[in-house]
Design a protein that fits this description.
By secondary structure, the protein is α+β, with helices and mostly antiparallel strands. The chain has two domains: 174 residues, Alpha-Beta Plaits, CATH 3.30.70; 88 residues, no CATH class. It is 32% helix and 14% strand. Strands 2-1-3-7 form a four-stranded antiparallel beta sheet. Strands 4-6-5-10 form a four-stranded antiparallel beta sheet, covered by helices on one side. The chain has a two-stranded antiparallel sheet with strand order 8-9. It starts with 17 loop residues before the first strand and ends in a 13-residue tail after the last helix.
């Protein structure tokens, strides 16, 4: 992966968060990666260096001595789980049209972001980057849930509506000074400094504040209206969830969970497995949940390794659901 430095790109020493950088978003992922497709750089370099390609950076550290882009299919093949290094947030304007008024509004709100993250403008929006205390990825579903809750915190504190579709841990982010269509990008800074990234240390929210922020987001974004139900655990009082208090045993909750999994759309089955397993904590013996949901998940096409990883994360004690160092 070749690159070069541009005189008009600010240069700062690299910091110690080292992440995978790929030539462009079309490079194949592990185990099909080719030599030269990916490299490893400190975030200071990633965010200031001028690249001769459409360079993209990941939020994770290299998984082996041979750096490569990772995908969900890579997980069963890795000797150890990926280590997440960055919390990267995209902010898009309505209809993806970044007017001057919208940029002024985001600039004012960015002053209230937790810590002092580095933010920069993109072609049609903005991107904000924090570092994380090194976090092992438990499962894609657990990371996605944690990520979305952090966006709720950002909305509660600043009113910034961040893009929930970036919650996939595999997502790549274009470097500020990549080259597109033969021209190196020049992006202005929104906040902070690329050489001194802040750790993500969010303030805690009350249940009422979290609910209010989620309502604020759903009122302003169709994407949030689609994902908001994922952040609300099924309640026994809802029409399609069993009334556990009136049951003689745990069979009905398990049957309900199997039905939800069988009805899940392709692409949402692992997410649904995680959701129903979490909801079943305390409502049925863990061994029964693992056994019955594992069988149900296999019937809808999930792999054994994916099922085991998701159930392990979903049935962990609540304190283990947030990445280390993040509330």
């Amino acid at each position: 992966m070749s690159d070069h430095c541009s005189d008009d790109v600010p240069r700062e020493p690299s910091i110690d968060r080292r992440v995978v950088v790929v030539r462009d978003r079309y490079v194949p992922s592990h185990p099909h990666a080719r030599v030269g497709d990916a490299g490893v750089l400190g975030t200071g370099d990633v965010l200031t260096r001028g690249f001769s390609s459409d360079a993209q950076f990941a939020a994770y550290a290299p998984a082996s001595a041979k750096p490569a882009r990772l995908s969900h299919a890579s997980l069963p093949l890795l000797a150890a789980p990926p280590r997440m290094q960055l919390f990267v947030v995209d902010v898009d304007p309505p209809d993806h049209v970044a007017t001057g008024q919208w940029r002024d509004d985001v600039q004012a709100r960015a002053a209230h972001l937790p810590g002092n993250p580095f933010g920069f403008w993109t072609r049609n929006g903005a991107r904000i980057v924090w570092t994380l205390e090194e976090v092992e990825l438990e499962s894609g579903a657990a990371w996605s849930e944690w990520y979305l809750f952090q966006l709720v915190v950002i909305a509660a504190v600043t009113g910034i509506v961040a893009d929930p579709t970036c919650s996939d841990w595999t997502r790549l982010h274009r470097a500020p000074h990549a080259t597109r269509d033969g021209e190196m990008l020049t992006r202005g800074w929104l906040s902070g400094h690329p050489g001194v990234l802040a750790d993500w240390q969010p303030p805690s929210l009350t249940d009422l504040e979290r609910a209010a922020a989620l309502g604020y987001l759903t009122a302003r974004s169709a994407s949030w209206r689609r994902v908001a139900p994922r952040l609300i655990e099924p309640s026994p009082s809802t029409p399609d969830a069993p009334n556990v208090a009136s049951m003689q045993d745990a069979r009905a909750p398990l049957a309900w969970a199997r039905r939800r999994l069988a009805e899940a759309e392709r692409g949402m089955r692992n997410r649904t497995l995680y959701d129903v397993a979490r909801w079943l904590r305390g409502k049925a013996p863990d061994d029964d949940v693992r056994s019955e949901l594992h069988a149900a998940a296999r019937r809808v096409g999930l792999s054994d390794s994916e099922i085991r990883q998701t159930l392990k994360s979903a049935l962990a004690p609540p304190a283990q659901h947030a990445p280390q160092g993040a509330a």
